[in-house]
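Sample entry (358 residues):
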Amino acid sequence: MTAPGRCEISWFAALCDDDYEQLGVVRSDLRSSWEHCRAIVEQAERSGFDNVLLPSGYALGIDAVAFAGGMAACTSSIRLLVAVRCGEMWTPQLARQIATLDHMLGGRLTVNIISSEMPGESLDGPARYRRTGEVMAALRDLLSGRSIGAEGEFVSVDVAPPRIAEENRGCPPLYFGGLSDEARDVAAQHADVYLMWPDTIDVIGDLVNEMTERASAYGRSLRFGYRAHVVVRESEHEARAAADHIVAALDDETGAAIRARSLDSQSTGVRRQAELRESASRDGFVEDHLWTGIGRGRSGCGAAIVGDPHQVAGKIEQYRSLGIEAFILSGYPHRDECRRVGDLVLPLLEHGPLEIEP
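Predicted structure, serialized as tokens:
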């Protein structure tokens, strides 16, 4: 399968205290802050990226929704992919926040749904994903200007849409990821873009095929996205040396502590990233140009595309041939790697915002 047209290339704004020169070595100038994260987004816009992910974590960094409101006046062309933790807020209020952001951004908003718990709450996976599905369905109605009369297990409310939603273009595209069976089913029913973390070409191809069939069973179609780190330099030798530098100061204890900080540190997806790392060769590569060493010091997305500009672009094109149309890239430090990817890789790719009808 070959994805038609252009692919969407996004960057990552590191709102969750996830910016380093070397993993495990905290630098105060790279901590999450309005000034630092704004500089990353502004660099991504100057470099020609189509979108930028604003991640969300309750305990770490700064709030994605509040940050996006501030960035609405600081950007003019780049889209914002705002992560929202759907378990943390009453659904109609969340709809009003999203509708307001979409209004402020003039239609440049996309939304990354996170299947979260309430801070301090412990909810098992199946129940959490049942709630996520109810929230996504209610958000789609409210953000499309439709009233809801929901009597669900978690969302039980009879309410009209926020007025501002009726003036927008409809529900912004909903990006969503997860590897558990419950997560896949929620994506098949409710997502516009199904996001995947790094894996081998064969595994990603199988997952695209499976999720296409799942969505079809619900009378829907899905678009596909891929989240990965990247280390690009003028030569492959330089790129591998730069990758080694990122983890050179990291010991196993510090790496384990960093991974454990994440609220999703025990999820199916995170476990799969650990398996990928364990199956890699001694140099950390699990297949050509896919390096798992970066996962030693972070939870979640745990592998990087490493190589010279043509190798990195070629790897992206391999994923494109599987049907993936959206890529969310990141690298350390994020502002510097953003500039490199913009200068060296983006000119080699045909890209533009992912167009999804509301």
